[in-house]
Design a protein that fits this description.
heterodimer; A: alpha+beta; five-stranded antiparallel beta sheet; 21 helices; B: 177 residues; mainly alpha; Rna Polymerase Sigma Factor, Chain: A; 2 domains; 9 helices
Chain lengths: 682, 177
Amino acid sequence: MTPDDDFDLDDLRSALDAATPRPDPTRRAAHLRLAQENFDRLQGAVDPARLILERPKGGVRVGVRKMLDGLTSRGGLTLTTALVACGVLLLTPIGREVLRSPLERDERSGRTAPEPMPQPAMKDGAAPVEPEAPPVTPLVAPQAVAPEIARSRLAEATSDPTTAETGAAPAADAEAFASGAVAAEPPPRSDDGVAPSLLAPAPVIAPEPGLAPLPRPDTEAFANEDPNPLRITAEEPVSTFSIDVDTASYSVVRQSLMSGALPPPEAVRVEEMVNYFPYDYPAPAAGEGPFRPTVSVMATPWNPDTRLVAIGLQGEMPAIADRPPLNLVFLIDTSGSMEDPTKLPLLRQSFRLMVDQLRPEDQVAIVTYAGSAGLVLPPTPASDRRAILKSLNGLMAGGSTNGQGGLEQAYDVAADMAAQGEVSRVILATDGNFNVGLSDPGALEDYIARERETGTFLSVLGFGRGNLDDATMQALAQNGNGQAAYIDSLQEAQKVLVDQLTGALFPIAQDVKVQVEWNPATVAEYRLIGYETRALRREDFANDRVDAGELGAGHSVTALYEVTPVGSPAQLTEPLRYRPEPAAGDGTGELGFLRLRWKAPGGGQSRLLETPITGQEPAGSEARFAAAIAGWGQLLRADDHLGTWGYGQAIDLASANRGEDPFGYRTEAVQLMRLAQSLAAE
Amino acid sequence: MTASDEDLARAAAQGDGAAFAALLDRHYDRLFRLCFRLTGARAEAEDLTQDICAALPAKLQGWRGEAKVTTWLWRVAVNAAHDRRRRRATFLKASDGWGDWETARQADIEDGRERVDWLLRAMAKLPDDLRDTLALVLDEVSHAEAGTILGVSEGTVSWRVSEAKKKLRALRAAEEA
């Protein structure tokens, strides 16, 4: 090495050391866990936690795979025999029954399954730990375990979406094993076909295990909270929440039911199911404001001694003809896991539908992210349909997901496109797996919350099941002033991207907050149905810096309260003997007082709208249909407030109040309720 | 730690999960560092490390104790990096109309968005074999060991290192010009 050599190795080394980042502790832990799981599978190590968690069918699959893993010419004959025996267990109903643990039988009978695992990740009130459930020390981090429970419930359902007959799915699996074509655990079809190669590569059949940079196939995370508890009006008269216009939960429920399984209770967000449907509440008169509240009071369908208060907000439909030009940035996840018929191909078709709805003056750009982010289509006028469709058709899945790199670029592109008076929106389409970079929902939220201030909105479209990270989708859309919708079929794409496109893209009010003050003189107890993830603190109502949901053009939002009148036999708590003096307003006989706050889009100062709830408001078919859906949602969550009221009553109530239903959404809901009824009865 | 890498690896190859965990935990940080140098970007390095972690249990079954565990591990890493690059190349070729990935990436770099150090960028421009060699040597791997890992002679490693330095110098000169 000469003295004038610029590139002394030690200098290079220290420069490189300075540039090398420390591994991210979360990623590090995840990688180590992944390695360990693969190790255990490969070694056949017995992990008590897994044995209990894995559904028996999965357990057999793992067992079969382990046998195949170890398959050599020496042991081949014995193992083949064992395989046939396993096939018998899998294929015959009796065999399947033998394999099914008491835990699972409970679950299938529609009863609340006792969950042996603590679930801090999604506090699900519907899964009480029953005393007979064996206490288990989780060997895997609880957060990782919880989605696996959800996943395992889905596994059976998703393994063959085309037939509800569960017997067909294991048959297909067994065939695959027998032919030796599948080295690893055969994935549910909606999963990516390559994904399992990450899990437990099999040395004999696949000596060079694929290094596909794909997420583990059994990761679904749902954002949910305990169902709202009963509140005592005298103690806590004020209830505050943000509106929720997401619909993702309904689609997830539908997808589960259509594939023959009840959805995991934590995937059910009642308010999203209710708000999936358009409601025909009276629209605001000209000059009245961006939306109009409609209050309806009726007897609670599931409890004759309580009353149901439905609060509906109907957004105005501004003249579409003079809508401002739109700048849309499609941010598309092209990671390897998107390569599935229900993901990228569906996404292409969905966006095609949408592009046809755009006007010549609108602009479209496409950014993809997989490993590194890239601008696939620079801002292009919507009139150049050919260029846009060509880019869409050229999208290919491959590589890993780098959610944030793509987001940053998408926001940059949107900022460049924005002109005065135009509406900019980033539409993120993903299977929800942000597995590289900033994958911590908290950090992503912060980033998006900052970008929201720049005036660019964010909507999230979820595709496919298997690693749908519902929690992250929720976090993104809520903080980006946008909507989260889950696209499971072309019909759903039609609904979200065509029928309701205007509402989805043009906000008419943002940070819409609802506050109800209940009158302790008339209402003893109340309970907000749903909106668990949208609760606000009482003082946040008037705090304009606290973010809340946005209302799109023509959209409607419904919230339901179940209230127990004073003196009703349904009252669950004893009235207090020592009560403060009645305050002003107590004697009015009103049930409560409704306050709404909202901001004009982009506006900083919130406005207030107040109206009393008299208890005399009539309920129409719209509110009754909402009540039926809310009841159904609570049934799916195994809520204990419904008594003996069941699917039959929910179906009757919904069918009787289908209304005009021009798009057939409500009819479809009734069909799904029937499906849920028969699945729950199994 | 009392147990040597080799003892842990032997135990792990025989099915001792705790030994495997200890071994990977011990070397994870260095593995990640090497991956970062082989790829030059954090996200890529994380993906690569994940790939390696996922495949390692199966790979370990083929470990016969003929080399130091670290030597073996770095070889696994370098091979995995190769596979990744090859897949990416195929993928780019296959995705006609994808848009110019490389141009976009370069634009990113111009923007300073990724804030990658000059050296990393320069290393990314080196031919693969030179870059791999340099990444290893800069990671305190001896020329002899690097030779074992890469399957070339010690002399070739030394030649590649000097070749890499020559290229880096040329790159800097070109940039300053």
